[in-house]
Amino acid sequence: MSAQGLSGPGLRLDRLPRRRAVNRLMELLAWLAAAIAIAILGIVVYSVARKGWSELNLNLITKAPIPFSLTNAPQGLANAFAGSLVIVGLATAMALPVGILVAVYLNEFAPAAVRNGVGLILDVLNGVPAIVVGIFVFGLLVVGHGQNGFDGAFALACLMLPLVARATMEVLALVPNSLREASLGLGIPQWRTTLSIVLPQTVGGIVTGTVLAVARVAGETAPLLFTSSLVGTQTSWDPHHALQSIPVAIFELSESPDPADHARAWAAALVLLMFILFASLAGRWLATRSRAKMATR
Amino acid sequence: MSTTIEPTVRVETTRRQPMPPRERLETIFHVEGLDALYSGKAAIKDVTIDVYKNLVTAIIGPSGCGKSTFIRCFNRMNDLIPGFSQTGTIRYHGQDICASNIDPVAVRRNIGMVFQRPNPFPKSIYDNVAWGCRVLGMKDGLDERVERALTQAALWDEVKDRLKASGLSLSGGQQQRLCIARAIAVEPDVVLMDEPAASLDPIATQAIEQLMHELKSEYTFVIVTHNMQQAARVADMTAFFSISRGEEGKRFGELIEYDATEKIFTAPSDKRTEDYVTGRFG
């Protein structure tokens, strides 16, 4: 036994080489796992960019598609971009207030049992496959009335609701209780405390959660197939009729026999991908900023 | 052997006025048989005490004896804690404030609170004081009201040139005085202080003690403190709580002795009080 290996004030060096080797191995495995995750994203982005690059121009957003076109007249997917904007916008308008109110109720007013129960339900709702939500809204609203933009927005709102509510609950939980007590201790009612003291602290977090939820549902295809997909090629902003959307357009164009349609589908996918990337980055940035703000204030 | 406690930190404070005789004191809180429980486990048991108007009443005792729980009963702050329940009565000017038909918001409107850790709003210094007044409808002469509260809290001179700065930009001691200004700006009847000087240096502590001396003609103070010198300096009446063991060794807080501060610190009638105030506790 070497003196260094014994307990005492000196460094313990027993089995150090082995421990180092295991450490290296684990580090390498973790690094590999991270590299695989990044590589998958890289391959997706690269292949979408390569195939869609040729059609990525202003026409894609400004010109409507021309069905069975025999000329080389410029065409794009203006109807899909307009439709996505309207549908996702409406979905956000539906999901945001409800989601925030659900979170406020659960975090500020509900007893713990209700909070945990409804929280679990939100998580389950979050896990419901998008196509199931699509069928649900189809059965609820579309059957007998026909598709329209509102139905599509409602389907997306169902997907957004748990995301927004959960994100809001998380930031509400970060607001220190001492702040609530400060206000309540002055004899100020709870609703006023929530509105004027608690909620202003969470604006950054709510915006972040909403941006991420928007990014998530903007790419959803399945719910829209059921609710807002039987459309013409003209650009419309009116949600009383079925509206085209980017994911559905990509899906339909991918089945077209025309290679130019394929390229346009890839280009649209690229735009969608960029949007999600930038929205996520913006969400991250907002989250960091609001956290920094809460830490210093 | 006399067991006088001499403050180890001597701070200059106005000498305490001699307390009026007890029969001339007006009872503001009459607490009777108060049990406070967290999820059915008693934190304090069977507390009966009268708190007098325009006095400073200190609550002292070892950690875990239920001092904070007790003081938070006075303005129903414990209502916010899930699983909390209490039995017994607290009468405020004769009215039972624990009754189910009493709105805790109304109770807190009359009985303000300053917390252990300074908790200013993330608003400007001015708004920290003014917001409560505004929400509670005291909108007339708001500027004067804010100035008066900040002056009473011995903070005005330090902040008068930067009222728009964030309340969180102040130092810990200044933040605590800001919280006191916020509490007194809405003109409560009673101000509860839960270890207000726990995170403050001696100078800020002195300012707060000074403040209690000056304001007790207008308000009634109930203060929880770990610091016996502080109780000796500021309080007219002192209540000593200690931890007792019930059946099966369950620990709960209990009021051991309640008397004039002089008496508690010089001639306590209970052995446990004497042990605690002379530092022989534990």
Features:
heterodimer, A: 297 residues, mainly alpha, MetI-like fold, B: 282 residues, alpha/beta, globular
Summary, kept brief:
By secondary structure, chain A is an all-alpha fold. Chain A contains 12 helices and no strands.
Describe this structure in words.
The complex is a heterodimer of chains A (297) and B (282). Chain A is mainly alpha-helical. Chain A has a single domain, classed as MetI-like (MetI-like fold, Orthogonal Bundle). Helix content of chain A is 72%, strand content 0%. Chain A is globular and about 85 Å long. The N terminus of chain A is likely disordered. Chain B is α/β, with parallel strands linked by helices. Chain B is 31% helix and 26% strand. Chain B is built from ten helices and ten strands. In chain B, strand 4 and strand 5 form a beta hairpin. In chain B, helix 3 runs parallel beside helix 6. The two termini of chain B are 21 Å apart.
Biggest beta sheet summary of chain A? none
Summed over residues and divided by their number, the pLDDT of chain B gives a mean of 87
Helix content of chain B: 25-40%
* CATH architecture label of chain A: Orthogonal Bundle
Number of helices of chain A: 12
Q: Tell me the CATH topology of chain A.
A: MetI-like fold
Oligomer: heterodimer
Shape of chain A: globular
Using only CA atoms, what is the Rg of chain A? 26 Å
Order of helices and strands of chain B: EEEHEEHEHHHHEHEHEEHH
Which consecutive residue ranges of chain B, at least 5 long each, have pLDDT under 50? 10-14
